[in-house]
Amino acid sequence: MNPAAEVIVQTPDRRSARARSHLDMIRAVVHSDRAMAEILGVSQSQVSRWRSGQRPDRDNADRLAGLALVVEMLLRWLEPEIVEEWLTGANAHLDGATPAYHVQQSQLAEVVGAIEAMKAGVFA
């Protein structure tokens, strides 16, 4: 097998560590588990369980990773104190929906498109 084509399967411990890393990235701008839960569309207790080491299911792990990516992108353009507001506010590039809604629906491409439009100065 070609070494470049090998698939590396993450162990449960690595997936839990990755989830905690994503939570830490998001927590840098979303200052409570409650707010993070609302953005992700899960319960606050679920976020607490992930923080304690419980592994999120695949769909929530994908949403968590997507939100961490979005936060990282936003921090390149916005002040940290504005990011949570951007995530939860109506966005003209998303037809008035919130970026959080699109994260919950696993529609990351739309959120990234809204970020790119904002960076380019495109008005909706």
Structural features, described:
With 124 residues, the protein is mainly alpha-helical. It has 7 helices and no strands. The chain has helices at 12-27, 33-40, 44-51, 58-75, 80-88, 99-104, 108-120. Helix 2 crosses helix 3 (44-51). The longest helix has 18 residues, at 58-75. The radius of gyration is 15 Å and the shape is globular. The termini are far apart.
Number of E-type strands:
0
From the spread of the alpha carbons, the general shape counts as globular
Number of domains: 1
SSE class: mainly alpha
Strand content: under 5%
Radius of gyration from the alpha-carbon trace, in angstroms:
15 Å
Continuous helix count: 7
**Span between termini:** 49 Å
Q: Characterize the largest beta sheet: strand count, sense, and whether it forms a barrel.
A: none
The overall pLDDT average reads: 91
Task: Walk me through the topology.
Layout: H1 12-27, H2 33-40, H3 44-51, H4 58-75, H5 80-88, H6 99-104, H7 108-120
Helix pairs in contact: 1-4, 2-3, 4-7
